[in-house]
Amino acid sequence: MSSGGGKGAAAKGGGGKGGGGGKKKEVKKETKLGMAYKKDENFGEWYSEVVVNSEMIEYYDISGCYILRPWAMEIWELLKEFFDAEIKKLKLKPYYFPLFVTENVLQKEKDHIEGFAPEVAWVTKSGKSDLEAPIAIRPTSETVMYPYFSKWIRSHRDLPLRCNQWCNVVRWEFSNPTPFIRSREFLWQEGHTAFATKEEADEEVLQILELYRRIYEEFLAVPVSKGRKSEMEKFAGGLYTTSVEAFIPNTGRGIQGATSHCLGQNFAKMFDITYENEKGAREMVWQNSWAYTTRSIGVMVMTHGDDKGLVLPPRVAPIQVIVIPVPYKDADTTAIKGACESAAYTLNESGFRADLDTRENYSPGWKYSHWEMKGVPLRIEIGPKDLANKQVRVVCRDNGAKVDIPVANLVEEVKVLLDEIQANLLKTAKEKRDACVEVIHTWDEFTTALNNKRLILAPWCDEEEVEKDVKARTKGDLGAAKTLCTPFDQPELPEGTLCFASGKPAKKWSFWGRSY
């Protein structure tokens, strides 16, 4: 456990149970826990500290690369379990394509590679010899896969072709690497599909986008807006891009949560992906690609974390309930330990992810701080008084509420509390996000809202030149403002409404702001 700048949290005591004790002679010297930085005072340092101290990541000796430890990987696996089951219902098949792609294939779709060119990492040597031609490491797999789609798709009977792979990709970012949020290598799933008709492709784009909304709102308890990206912000080489967008109130920045792209027939044209229709004529397929990444974990940390560390929504917490014995004075430690083992066993048998912390070289108070830092949703404490009263003391991580529960009702009560925490985290995050939304109509209102870290909803003429102009006019140390998305949920646009930036007639409402 990394020490966190020593705020003396180990001395916090034991939740009114005489904890923090343990017999003095049994307790070895403890590392003090706690956070050196506060979320509202120094968000960047706070975030770095949380992801390390909670044992999610470890920094690596190559900048922008991070070791994902079990506490992060288990969250990723829980999300994967849900998403994989859902896409299999849609008849997606698992594939794995190679990590490498040749230069001539990568450069086949010009707009596409221009969008990714600055981030592509190249292999140029094998041992001491130069390779005949450099080989790229995939920044995304369209160009890796589509030459083979062309080979596998011959007839309308071969459609739809729907594949998904869980893998890593490399994008050699140079600006502000941040664990989970912006890293040179990250994990993701990428779905790639081909259809006979645009209608089928359009339908799937939205089906997948809804699954991404569910990942964020139902699992990570992060509110998101579904919408469409502007032409300037869409996927390079695609027809249109939809996304779920989150917002971080502390920094006043939007963050793209996941994307679902309709590629149209552009790649089909470049890679000659055609099929013979029922009438014997050749037609081009319609394609989609879509992905979400380990960035989702970082968005969750930023949204819910507090000055004690991580706060995990129960649905993605690797451990949902931690059970801690609180023996003191001349308590019957054997009986207390037995009651703790029994509680953990009962909860695990009932389908919860529960664990027991019986380490004897740490005091209960230290353990409380440790598991709070790791964001475990519920802590159960059992001391002599609890044993005598056939109850357990339960403490909620999200709001610190303490409640005594009869052992006989343990399973039912824990279920209720975990459901409440899950719902409460989303509700609180939604309230904070909604409080940051500002509807504006003029350029002056826009710049004021931007400087106040707002998520801006503005009437826009939907012209690329105007968006470029807004970017240029807002450039500064904090980064330029851009469109985040045009939400599907459009407020009424009264006739005669003008674009906030150009004064031309507005065509739609769009979210604007700075972003990660």
From TrEMBL:
InterPro entries: aa-tRNA-synt_IIb, aa-tRNA-synth_II, aa-tRNA-synth_II/BPL/LPL, Anticodon-bd, Anticodon-bd_dom_sf, Pro-tRNA-ligase_IIa, Pro-tRNA-ligase_IIa_arc-type, Pro-tRNA_ligase_II_C. NCBIfam families: proS_fam_I. Residues 1-25 are annotated as: Disordered. It comes from Urochloa decumbens. CDD domains: ProRS_anticodon_zinc (cd00862), ProRS_core_arch_euk (cd00778). The lineage of its organism: Eukaryota, Viridiplantae, Streptophyta, Embryophyta, Tracheophyta. GO terms for molecular function: ATP binding; proline-tRNA ligase activity. Pfam families: HGTP_anticodon, ProRS-C_1, tRNA-synt_2b. It catalyses: tRNA(Pro) + L-proline + ATP = L-prolyl-tRNA(Pro) + AMP + diphosphate. This is proline--tRNA ligase. SMART domains: ProRS-C_1. Residues 1-21 have a biased composition (Gly residues).
